[in-house]
Amino acid sequence: MSALAPGAVIEIALRTLAVSGAALALAVALGVPAGLALGRRRFPGRGLLVATVNTGMGLPPVVVGLAIALMLWRSGPLGGLGWMYTQQAMVLAQLAIALPLVVGITLATVGALAEDWHLQVRALGVRGLRATWLLVRETRMGLLAAVIAALGGILSEVGAVMMVGGNLEGETRVLTTGILMYTEMGRFEEALALAAVLLGLTFVLAAALTVLQQAHRA
Amino acid sequence: MSDPSALGGLPLLSARDLEVGYAGGFALRVPALELRPGEVLAVLGPNGSGKSTLLRALAGLLPPREGALEVRAARGVSLVFQRPVLLRGGVAWNAELPLWGRGVARRERRRRAAAALERLGLSALAGRDAATLSGGEARRLALARAFAVEPDVLLLDEPFDDLDAIARERLSLDLRRAIGATGIAVALVTHELRQALLLADRIAVLRPGALVQLGPRDEVLRRPATPEIAELVGMANLLAGSIGERDLRSGLARIALEAGGELRAPSALSRGTGVIAGIRPENVKIDEAGDDPGRVGSGVVCELVSDGAIVTAWIEWQGVRLRSHLLAGRGLGHALKSGDRVHIAIRPEDVHVMPRPR
Questions:
Q1: What distance in Å separates residue B173's CA from the closest CA in chain A?
Q2: Is B87–A121 a contact, with Cβ atoms under 8 angstroms apart?
Q3: Per-domain boundaries in chain B
Q4: What is the DSSP string of B205-218?
Q5: Over the stretch B185-228, which tens digit does the pLDDT of each residue have?
Q6: Three-class SS of residue B41?
């Protein structure tokens, strides 16, 4: 049995980036606006929605995996998509894990802003999209914390992607599922190589986001 | 300051039978209020009377529950909060914000923001991070931000808070100059009576929940509608009494004070009515020659305080302590000592008679 070729490691790493990147992009695109709206507006049922989001922030990934699997299974409501054991299924699972994190942290960040801040922005005559832009600018630290938390959640996630992706070589194998598999097989060398790549990726991405977060206030 | 009635022109803001409030329950009623070009309206009132609420309503931040607010300010209404909120970013960016919000092009935005910063003496700080400013600097930045849009109406909530005496004077001068040059209308809420009087053409007085008096500055100072308002506008001598006989020759009413003394004053109230007689401290005169037509007898000086320009003397007279303001320096105040017996003159036209509230 030969050791894992460098090309194969790179391929797994790139697939990990593609899947997690897609999930993160979707989670931010959907979660930040939802969090801003939920943090700003008052409407009936808001409390229940916030409680749901907060529950979602602590959702065990295997439960998410199970739920997605049930939906994507041939007889499930989304069975027609044929996504089971594909990268789309993995993106969906990671999105389900990341979305509550993004919404929850965004909403907490916006909620922590004094009511006078919003009043001041209105008093300055800034409305609509420009006001939203100012809000994003003002809460940049918190919003990036939300992105960092989501990134950590999905990059390190293994249970759900294993269940709905299947760890198929060349198709749905990512760093975490690879590590799990090689460890179970007793091939610690390969497991360690993938683990090193995962750690390196996590560090580089988190560091980049941190630089962005702490950048001088322009 | 200029006489607003002479300016003519349509009011920039006018409220009629306005009621504004918060969901929590506090509401403020404003029967009628107008703001004309070039005038300064000072809003006075105790804490919690709704001064900030009124400004927020005039700025359009609080939708009226009842009545209507008409705004004819084409260039807009700027409100400066009591505790201004600066946004994350530089000083210059903060000054540009309202212009950016209105879609003003970058170059024009920069120019106007720089001019506004200059006006408030902040040019040297333009490159700083707004979060590093001191309280007074932050307040000046908030004012610069309001000036940057060159609004028709400027609403200022306690603009002199956190400013030292020099900055306060300078701001007053800046405001006067800006008002004179632009015809901007200003409504300002302040507990600094002195600053309010320096600037105001008209005074609006609030008590919790309602606007209770509105009039030209001197009218409100001399003829406050209630003892409560009198106290607020510095009518420090408030003496309880009742209307007595009317002097046939002069038409003046005699007022029998509860403490024992007697004053004469113009009043249409009927005999026996319980009243409060209000006299401003500057109208309690010391009558050196003893022949002033307003003489009311003699009293004993019991306390003296001077701020260098004005001497405040408390004089025991007929069982009450009158407060009198005298000029310091070479004036009478200079020679006065505690324990001196002095003749006091209070002219009938300086005695303002108000029905006693139940």
A1: 24
A2: yes
A3: 4-222, 235-355
A4: EEETTEEEEEEEHH
A5: 999 998 878 888 888 999 999 989 899 999 999 999 999 999 99
A6: strand
